[in-house]
Each structure stands twice: as C-alpha cells, then as structure tokens.
C-alpha cells in the first residue's frame, strides 16, 4: 500500500468534568487527528494522545505536530508499505517521540485493515468479541463526592474502580471507600506522586486489598519500583515507566512490576504494544489497556488492541458519553454492564464524523507527495 495524502488536524474538545491527577487537571482536551489516504481515497485514522502540556510525559501537541510534519509524515508518504509492522522500522532512526509515531502508525494500521476488509482487532490477531472495562476517577474536592461517583459507576456496571491518589489523598480515602464498598474491585493510580521514602504510606495501602497500585514512583524508574514491590503486598502496575518492549523486558527481569498498563501512544504504536503484550503473556504478566482521555478515534484503537488474549484485566476505555457531549465517531462507544461489544466492520469499526471534526478543528494541514 501507499499513503498518498495525510491530513493532520488539531482538535479541541471540552470534557464534561474536570479530570484531576497528581500532576495536573484537564478540562479542555486538545489532541491531533491524523487521516491517511491511499490511492483509492480510502482513509485510515489515528489520534495523538499527547497533552497540551508535558505533564504525563515530555511530548506535547506542538512537539507531535513538529515531529509528524518534519519527519514522520515525509518518511511514510508515497512509500511502498506491505504491512504496518514496517512503520516502526522506518521510524527507528528517530528517537522517542512515541506518541507522534503512534499517531501515524495507528492510521496506517486502520488503513491496512480497511484495505483487507477486516476489523482492526482481527488484523492485530485479536479474537475477543467483547471487552471488559473499568473507570478511572480523578481526585475530587472531598471524599463524599468521590463516594457518590463510585456509587454511580458501580451501578453503571463498570468492572473495576480506579481512583487517582497522591500524598494526603490516599490511605484515608481508601479506608472510606472500603467502608462503603467492601467488595468492589478497586485500584489506585499515583502517576508518580511518591518516592521510595514513602514506603510506609504505600505499605499502609496493603490492608485494602487493591488489585494493584499503578505507577507509584518516578515516571522513568524501574529500579526503585523493584525495591518497593519487595516491601508491599499490593501488586505494582507500571504505566509511565514502560515505553518499549525493552523497558518491559528489563522491568520484568528486575521484578519492578506484576502488571502492565499498555497505552498505544506511550509505547510508539500498535506493533510495539502487541510485542509487549506477547512478552507479558510469555511471562504470565497480565496486561490491560490504559486511557488518555481520548476521543472516539483513540478509543477505537484501544478497543481493537484489547481483543488480544492477554488483556485479562478491565481497561480504562469508558463510554464516549462519560467524557464528551458529542464524540467524533458514529456510533459512539457505548458500555453495557462494563462490557464493550467489539465492532466487526473493517478497520477501527467506527465512522469518523467529519462534520463534528470540522467544527472542533483549530488547525489543519494537508500533505501529499
Ligand atoms: O495515568 O492512566 C493515567 C488520564 C490522563 C493521564 C493519565 C492517566 C489518565 C487516566 C484516565 O487514568 C484514563 C481515561 O479515562 O481515559
Ligand atoms: Mg496511569
């Protein structure tokens, strides 16, 4: 296949609620959408999950635009590509910038699946017809508001509750949650808010029977996480620290984790995500698919990836309506009793709504060879 034209769009969408993590808050969510067209006018779509500010990792919307415009798009345009797995090879001389790489790689995967007439899930080798999802709840003003949200999402049927934590919003909050919801599958995500010195506080979480604690320590660390895991019972799950297959291999070898949260953007695309999935499967390390407050395009990619066999824990891909008044895809992503039915149409299986996308676009540029 050849990509003959790329359209890059900078989109701005308002979330229905402020989402607060240990590193910052989101209300206006900006992201890039990339449309890759082949010679027959068929389109594949990808989303950049980089944020406006370099809080979660070092990438931003602007750095992604720059890397895509000046390096990645020119190296893909008009090039003969037999399989999307080749993309990561083509990009191998460009260091990091994983979210930028993933944006165009995801569009090529979607285009490839559409050309073959199969779903993206099938193209990746996924077999599940349904996937289970949980929900990620940001830091709230007070515990009562958090308990109300948990009650609502448990009623909705979400398969597990993830609560964002930080020093001062952790042990007592978990105690209150457990008082009201003794049996709900529960986990915590610290987004790197602690240091190894905080081990006593993290050990105090052991009594709440958490499924896991996600990324307690520094965003680039795998050494201290190994030391921490030896001292706490709660399984450590890494998010920010795992950027590649090699990171995953080393972290498994060191004992830095028992679970991995795979995010397609963080690891540079679907091909690398699948490699990490396969490695974890071999080592009996369960994985799940994280979320980055994506629009429906990114969400569709997450759903397809989650159909692989070792995605055995519920992911963070909640329903479109949880985040947006109107999503950019038709139909929107819906969740029934914590389950998403995987679309079987070719490619990502949801139709980008060009009219809505047009309205939300701040900047747009077309590239052709
Ligand atoms: O660490 O998983 C994270 C949102 C923004 C940045 C980082 C994270 C998150 C979430 C929300 O937890 C996941 C979602 O609902 O898309
Ligand atoms: Mg996380």
TrEMBL record:
Belongs to the mandelate racemase/muconate lactonizing enzyme family. MenC type 2 subfamily. It comes from Aeribacillus alveayuensis. Pathway: Quinol/quinone metabolism; menaquinone biosynthesis; Quinol/quinone metabolism; 1,4-dihydroxy-2-naphthoate biosynthesis; 1,4-dihydroxy-2-naphthoate from chorismate: step 4/7. Signal peptide: none annotated. Converts 2-succinyl-6-hydroxy-2,4-cyclohexadiene-1-carboxylate (SHCHC) to 2-succinylbenzoate (OSB). It comes from the Bacteria. Mg(2+) binds at residues 189, 214, 239. Keywords: Lyase, Magnesium, Menaquinone biosynthesis, Metal-binding. HAMAP family: MenC_2. InterPro entries: Enolase-like_C_sf (IPR036849), Enolase-like_N (IPR029017), Enolase_C-like (IPR029065), Mandelate_racemase_C (IPR013342), Mandelate_racemase_N_dom (IPR013341), MenC (IPR047585), OSBS/NAAAR (IPR010197). The keyword Iron does not apply. Its EC number is 4.2.1.113. GO terms for molecular function: O-succinylbenzoate synthase activity. PANTHER family: O-SUCCINYLBENZOATE SYNTHASE, O-SUCCINYLBENZOATE SYNTHASE-RELATED. This is o-succinylbenzoate synthase. Residues 143-235 form the Mandelate racemase/muconate lactonizing enzyme C-terminal domain. The active site is at residues 164, 263. Its cofactor is a divalent metal cation. It catalyses: (1R,6R)-6-hydroxy-2-succinyl-cyclohexa-2,4-diene-1-carboxylate = 2-succinylbenzoate + H2O. Pfam families: MR_MLE_C, MR_MLE_N. It is an enzyme of class 4 (lyase).
């Amino acid at each position: 296949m050849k990509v003959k034209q790329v359209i890059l769009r900078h989109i701005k969408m308002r979330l229905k609620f402020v989402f607060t993590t240990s590193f910052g808050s989101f209300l206006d969510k900006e992201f890039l959408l990339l449309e890759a067209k082949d010679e027959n006018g068929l389109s594949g779509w990808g989303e950049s999950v980089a944020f406006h500010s370099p809080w979660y990792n070092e990438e931003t919307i602007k750095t992604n635009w720059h890397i895509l415009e000046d390096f990645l798009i020119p190296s893909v345009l008009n090039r003969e590509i037999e399989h999307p797995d080749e993309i990561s090879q083509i990009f191998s001389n460009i260091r990091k910038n994983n979210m930028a790489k993933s944006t165009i790689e995801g569009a090529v995967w979607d285009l490839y699946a559409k050309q073959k007439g199969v779903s993206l899930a099938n193209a990746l080798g996924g077999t599940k017809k349904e996937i289970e999802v949980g929900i990620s709840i940001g830091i709230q003003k007070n515990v009562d508001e958090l308990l109300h949200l948990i009650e609502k999402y448990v009623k909705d049927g979400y398969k597990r509750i993830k609560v964002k934590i930080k020093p001062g919003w952790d042990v007592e909050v978990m105690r209150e949650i457990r008082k009201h919801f003794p049996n709900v599958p529960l986990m915590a995500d610290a987004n790197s808010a602690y240091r190894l010195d905080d081990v006593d506080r993290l050990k105090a979480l052991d009594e709440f029977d958490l499924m896991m604690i996600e990324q307690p320590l520094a965003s680039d660390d795998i050494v201290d996480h190994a030391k921490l895991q030896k001292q706490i019972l709660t399984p450590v799950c890494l998010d920010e620290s795992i950027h590649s297959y090699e990171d995953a291999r080393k972290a498994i070898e060191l004992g830095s984790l028992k679970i991995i949260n795979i995010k397609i953007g963080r690891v540079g695309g679907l091909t690398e995500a699948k490699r990490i999935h396969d490695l974890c499967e071999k080592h009996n390390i369960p994985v799940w698919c994280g979320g980055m407050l994506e629009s429906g395009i990114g969400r569709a990619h997450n759903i397809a990836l989650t159909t692989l066999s070792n995605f055995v824990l519920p992911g963070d891909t909640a329903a479109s309506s949880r985040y947006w008044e109107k999503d950019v895809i038709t139909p929107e992503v819906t969740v029934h009793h914590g389950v998403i039915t995987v679309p079987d149409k070719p490619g990502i299986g949801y139709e980008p709504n060009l009219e809505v996308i047009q309205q939300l676009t701040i900047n747009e540029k077309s590239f052709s060879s």
